[in-house]
Here is the input.
Amino acid sequence: MKKQLFGSVMLAFVLSLTACSGDDSSPVNDGGPDSNPDTTFEIGDTGPGGGIVFYLDADGHGYEVGNNLGLIKWEDVANLYDAKDISGLGTAIGTGEANTALIVSTIGNGNYAAKRCADHEQGGKNDWFLPSKDELVALYNHFRSHWDLDIEVNNHWSSSQGGNYTRAWNTDFSVNSATTEFNNWTFEVQKDQTLYVVPIRKF
Here is the structure.
């Protein structure tokens, strides 16, 4: 009886080892190019989301710009003075993603610049957002020196609110910054104006 019991235990043990050491052909999710430390990008490359890389930091991370979403209002309001006063919106590089989330949570559903960017899907990525003022300027600087983007040479919205709650910052991609004062190509515009919108994302 003891021999039979011992034999059964040993058989179960061997079977479990065989199962664990077998060939597991299930796919492995490596997180894609965003999380792969061996993937490096240069300015002008196609990014992880199928956009164009236009900005890189010292660590090799940065931003890519997605497809042009067309002409959209910053906030779709019938009366300009019904626009939301959204405090806490930043202007610096690194604030666009949080800006977009705050705008969408404040305004809600609708057809407006930040929401269209937040809903955008491209290259298997759904974490696109409306660039902040300085992120948009970085995109403009890339465009004016490379001319490799499918961007309208016209005014584009940022996710940064202006000094007055009825206004937000935009950048005019048609203006040459080398010969024009800054406030004549990046300036505040009324939120009910229809300007071009492009989404960006971090990687």
